[in-house]
């Protein structure tokens, strides 16, 4: 027996002279597989992809455009402005006032309370009867008051505003981190769906090739008519699977679009990295002392609540104030009006030209003795809030530790599957090659061939999923550790 060597791009097979024709047919089939790159291009073109998107670009765009991140960025800026305002609250009050009036100055002996600010500040002689002598008058006033010592209330307000800024910043950071994880997961899902689409297209092409072969052999009387019917059914089944894969791609693409905050469009993902495993999985990662962004956010919430307790306690104490007044008055009534009720002028300038000035300076202390009784319950309530926040922190910490353990276990499993997937694909390809060669030469039936096509398709899908799951499990670990740089630095 003479042995010939038949080499193809996918496999090597030894054949005898009797099987040279089989090798020839099989080589033609592999010429089809060599065009797979062109096939990928046609697939992407047929579903309307318009832009190739890298993972870094997706994350960057999402952080810039996503609504909740932009909102929390504004909240952070608002808290910074509030901190500036709380610092300026320590400044003294300085009021300038000027008024010019026209009216009478009838006076009366007796008590008066200006309830609700409705009293009139007219002053004059308590004459025996009403008169309607009227003139202009004016009051010019400078008033300053300053709570210069508040037993720490002012400083605690400033400290509270500082912690509020930190809380808003930590909230923004954890929101960005969560968004980075979500975008990365959506990107990996879209990548997996597009690779599954390619596998389903390859499966359809294989089914169509053997449908043509079956139809031709049935027409020539070499096969039973049922073979062409079964081949047609397999093609329809493959088309349905392809359409489902296209729909799945659209769903994943829309999720990524929503997370990126951009207008609806189709993306082509970068597939180069997914055929490898993350380099960080090979390294021995040292433990990090940095706190998870979510735990940092909870910690600042606890600090904010504790700071509120300190502020409320400061309300137990009094407030010391300094004040000063400079007052200048003018009147159209002369100093002899007490004895001569004709000693006044209705001239405007005579009434508003200042001629009497007074000043006053002083220091005062105010202390509401019932405030400690009211504020004590506010302090107690805020302490319970702090305890509740601490419990939320502890729960989040436990969940992150559990997630990290789960991620480590999942990584081990996915790495094992990653090593087995190529073996499964290679074995399925060999079985498919053997069955297809036998079928073309009438040595087996279409049922056996269909089974190998299904096995190969399943193996290719498993390979795509396993490769993607390695990155998904690594992303899960990154989400538990809180260090997104470990993931993004892989690209």
From TrEMBL:
<keyword id="KW-0472">Membrane</keyword>
<dbReference type="GO" id="GO:0009279">
    <property type="term" value="C:cell outer membrane"/>
</dbReference>
<keyword id="KW-0812">Transmembrane</keyword>
<dbReference type="GO" id="GO:0015562">
    <property type="term" value="F:efflux transmembrane transporter activity"/>
</dbReference>
<keyword id="KW-1134">Transmembrane beta strand</keyword>
<protein>
    <submittedName>
        <fullName>TolC family protein</fullName>
    </submittedName>
</protein>
<dbReference type="InterPro" id="IPR051906">
    <property type="entry name" value="TolC-like"/>
</dbReference>
<keyword id="KW-1133">Transmembrane helix</keyword>
<keyword id="KW-0813">Transport</keyword>
<dbReference type="InterPro" id="IPR003423">
    <property type="entry name" value="OMP_efflux"/>
</dbReference>
<feature type="transmembrane region" description="Helical">
    <location>
        <begin position="32"/>
        <end position="50"/>
    </location>
</feature>
<dbReference type="Pfam" id="PF02321">
    <property type="entry name" value="OEP"/>
</dbReference>
<keyword id="KW-0998">Cell outer membrane</keyword>
<comment type="similarity">
    <text>Belongs to the outer membrane factor (OMF) (TC 1.B.17) family.</text>
</comment>
<dbReference type="GO" id="GO:1990281">
    <property type="term" value="C:efflux pump complex"/>
</dbReference>
<dbReference type="GO" id="GO:0015288">
    <property type="term" value="F:porin activity"/>
</dbReference>
